[in-house]
Amino acid sequence: MVGGSHDNATRLPHFTQHALWLCFVALICDWIPVASAETIVIDGLVAKLSFEIDVPASEAGPLIEMNVRKGDTVALGEIVARVDDRHAVLQSELAGVAHEVARHHLAAFSDDKLAEKKLEATELLQQQQRLLAQMAQDKAANETQISSAEKSAALAKNELQRALKARETFVDSVSESELENLRLKVEHAELVRQQAVADQKSNSLAADSEDAAVQLATVEIENARLKLADAVSSKSLLRLNLQAKEKELALSKLAVERFKIVAPADATVVEVYRMNGEWVQPGEKVIRVVGLSQLHAEGFLAAGQSTKLRRGQKVQLTLSSEPSTQVVGVVDFVSPQVDRINDEVRFLVRFENPGERILPGMKLSLSVDDR
After folding, report:
1. How far apart are CA 90 and CA 100, in angstroms?
2. Could you tell me the pTM of the whole model?
3. What backbone phi and psi angles, to 5 degrees, belong to 311?
4. DSSP 3-state assignment of 65?
5. Beta carbons within 10 angstroms of residue 136's beta carbon
6. Which terminal CB of the chain, N or C, has fewer other CB atoms within 10 Å?
7. What average pLDDT values come out for the chain (371 residues) when binned by 10 residues?
8. Contact assessment for residue 314 and residue 366, using Cβ atoms and an 8 Å cutoff
9. What region holds the CusB-like beta-barrel domain (predicted)?
């Protein structure tokens, strides 16, 4: 009994053990270092223009249009002024007419197609002529008619000779009329032979004539090919001429554009140097524009803290005179050089300026979490 009572007395209550455990955990947590994000604040940044541009004239002449005044906002490519461009416009119209004429000449040109048709017809004629020449040569080479006539003549002479011999043996065996008839057959056969020889010569001449016609057709084909080549060359020249006229037209349009003075970006006009009617020279300033829709905040940071900012990092900017005005910016530039005098590094933060509430020269502060 006594031993059991002693154990119960020395055992701590359950809630006391739990409290001691919590104290131990708290001590451990205080001892272990915990990483926390530190907010870096940099004051004294100054809003600056992202760009300011003096817009010049590109051509000489009097201003015939001035479309803006100080304080006007302009869009990229908007025509803000124009130099007298009447001569350039007329030159462009003339180039347009020349281009249209060149295009019409090329479209109406058909010599190449006609030359192709002529060449095809001449080649077909040559094929036909070659067939005729071959037929004439075959006919001229055929001596069957002469051979037949010669054999007929020989046969007639043979019959006449036999009749004469028979009459010498028997006077009354062959009458005078039969002999006369045989003599006529001999003469006729000789005439037929001579006609066959003459026809053969005529066929040879005809074959030579057909060969000459083939050669003539060959020459005509060569002429047709030359005409086709000339027509193709002429069409190529017309095509090149059209391309040249297209370039001239494009150049004339560019020349007209050079008389227009346009806004180089979305911006605000802050200066107008020339008035309508004044003479301007190429390169002479006409207006000045500045960009307010996007600004830069310029600041300086101690060299030892330059690694806190890096290009592309997002930061928060607060307008010093109106803390409720806050914008998000992006670090655009951190100088790799340290100023020898104040041991600081220059940096720029780019930010959008909706409503153009922040003006160049206003003070801002920067805050960013150092993680």
Report:
1. 15
2. 0.62
3. -60, 135
4. strand
5. 20
6. N
7. 43 50 48 55 94 96 96 96 97 97 95 92 90 87 84 88 82 79 88 88 87 90 93 95 97 97 95 96 97 95 89 95 94 94 95 92 91 64
8. no
9. 305-368
